[in-house]
Amino acid sequence: MDPAHETDELARRIARWLAPYVAEELRRARLDEAAPVASYDDAACERYLMGLGTGVLERADRFFGALARDGEIGSLELARLLGLSSPRYLAANLTNSLKQRADALALPRPWREGVDADDRTRWSDRDGIAARMVAAIAVERQWRSDLPRTQRITAADVAAGRIRVPARGKPLFPARAAQIEVELLGRRIAGRWNPRVDQDKSGVVSIGRAPLRALADGGELQLDDRLLIEQRDGVFVLFGAAQR
Length: 244
Prior knowledge:
- This protein has 244 residues and is α+β, with helices and mostly antiparallel strands.
- It is built from eight helices and nine strands.
- It has a six-stranded mixed β-sheet. The chain has a three-stranded antiparallel β-sheet with strand order 1-3-2.
- β2 and β3 form a beta hairpin.
- α3 (54-70) runs antiparallel to α6.
- The longest helix has 31 residues, at 3-33.
- The chain is globular and about 70 Å long.
- The chain starts with a helix and ends with a strand.
- The model is unreliable at 30-37 (pLDDT under 50).
């Protein structure tokens, strides 16, 4: 093969590999320029959604979709929409996370909230925010689909206190074994990275049995989950519990 052609082909492969990471840096830079957040415009909705786990994001899509479509929804309807057996599970599965994200951005709730004649909570759209959230969720989903994922979490992984990183995700981590800071499903943990470069195997993030066992016992981490991987300011973020 012509050396010039080989060089061009290598450049194209590198460009394809780098594309999602470059896109994410540009996306974050654009959203950072919009700070501080004062209202739920399009950029603020994107920033708001970036901090949600994948499960909450999916439930938020149904919630804001209902508000955009119907203008309001009650707790009984929302529980049915999300497949929950009772409205009392709404806080743990959706609204607590949405409120915490608003608080982190120093924003009001992205809805209006009241009670009906039966003293049950009802949510209503505010200033067209719900439709902007639905559009921003579609953008967030596309972005997350481009991120590398961990290997599937197994019982052996939990018992060993490790998370395995396949070849596509390894370039995000140091080239050599190192101590790293990990954010696992919102929790900061000191970890150890082993790229296993001398073996044709996945790299390993070791964080200890206790943190993984606590997440698994609490239901936040499920067997067969594949976590999304991202590096943010030197911290290795594993989030989303994305399942196929």
